[in-house]
Amino acid sequence: LARCAREVAEWKTGDRGEFYGHVGEPDEVRKQMMRAADLVYHSLEECAAEVERDEVGSVEEMYLPKRDLHDAYSAFALEEDLPSIAYNQFCDRVKNGVGDYQVDDTRTTRLPGPGQESVWVGLTLTDRGRWLLDGD
Questions:
Q1: Partners of 108 in beta bridges
Q2: CA distance readout (Å), 110 to 27, 48, 122
Q3: At 57, phi and psi to the nearest 5?
Q4: Long-range pairs of 51-55 with CB within 8 A, sequence gap ≥ 24
Q5: Distances (CA, A) of 12 to 1, 7, 118
Q6: Helix (H) or strand (E) holding 63
Q7: Short-list 48, 75, 43, 41, CA closest to 62
Q8: What is the pLDDT of residues 10-59, one digit of tens each?
Q9: What predicted TM-score, i.e. pTM, was given to this entire model?
Q10: Are 61 and 124 in contact (CB under 8 A)?
């Protein structure tokens, strides 16, 4: 305890440099903590990116099948040697908000045609997400 008090006193007087100088900015530390605590968040950070209409050639490029995002997440969990959650739980977690990702019901739709594939609107896979999905 005495050593701790001495080190704090030295830091306060400016004799020892920065207190925990190796720690990053608060936003950076928050992201690191979120990645460590939440596999869904970490996988979204690695595998998905938000996309706006003016960033793509066609509207279809704004649609990311929910199954594809879950499959990329499952491959990510397997690669990281961590447990994964079921498809429905994953979709609920994403819909209810994961960290900085706020995907509500207005960001989901069903594509017309056979099977009416359920998609996320405004999300796309990153290069890593595509790589995990394709298994290459």
A1: 120
A2: 35, 19, 14
A3: -80, -35
A4: 51/122, 51/123, 51/124, 52/122
A5: 16, 9, 57
A6: strand 63-65
A7: 48
A8: 777 765 556 566 667 777 777 777 666 788 888 888 899 888 778 878 77
A9: 0.69
A10: yes
What strand order describes the sheet that includes 118-121?
Answer: 63-65, 118-121, 108-110
Residue type, 100: D
The single-letter code of the amino acid at 69 is L
Q: Which two tokens stand for residue 26?
A: 């608060």
pLDDT digits 0-9 by tens, 56-108: 787 777 788 889 999 999 999 998 888 889 999 998 888 876 656 666 555 56
Give the C-alpha separation, 25 to 35, whole Å: 16
